[in-house]
Amino acid sequence: MLAVEMTGDSVKAKNGSMVAYDGTMNFKKLTGGGEGIRGMVTRRLTNEQMTVMEVRGHGTCWFADRAAEISLVHLQGEKLYVESSNVLCVEATLRTGTTFTGLRGASQGNGVFTTTVEGTGQAAIISDGPAVLLRVTKQHPLTVDPGAYVAHQGNLKQSFQSGVTFRHFFGEGGGEAFQIRFEGEGLVYVQPSERDTIAGDV
């Protein structure tokens, strides 16, 4: 559970994630574009849907989502790429938007766009189990299962690769038909469980 203390300022949070508050709070569902928020608002691409709300007031507001683990990411003028379903709450000082991810998104079955969070401030992301932070260097690229991917930041290049072999067609494969490969310098957040993906059904 995330406790956010507010003194008249605001945060953007996943719609319905407020579980309690004290003081005086105002909740406003965001339904339009503008200010780079369109990437988080009611996307309906390949069954993906996410809505956000603005919470403003004085007091403490608590946020949670299905008892998921919460990680705080401190940004200093950087950009964070995160699956929309893994965004819980971001400071109002941060700009949100979308970026096209192509085949990687299509393989997950939950959209071909990834939410971006950029600027200076804190973002709270959620994961199914404690998120693990893995470092990528030029000497050590990283390959991640799409269902375990949560977010990444830094100067990273993504590529989508298929691990399908004839063994998969005979039911002897390792179950990881598609992967995301990260190269460059940066950090990748992964969760110790996997979302249902199209790749998992191959």
From TrEMBL:
Database matches in Pfam families: AIM24
Lineage of origin: Bacteria, Bacillati, Actinomycetota, Actinomycetes, Kitasatosporales
InterPro entries: AIM24 (IPR002838), AIM24_sf (IPR036983), Trp_RNA-bd_attenuator-like_dom (IPR016031)
Protein name: AIM24 family protein
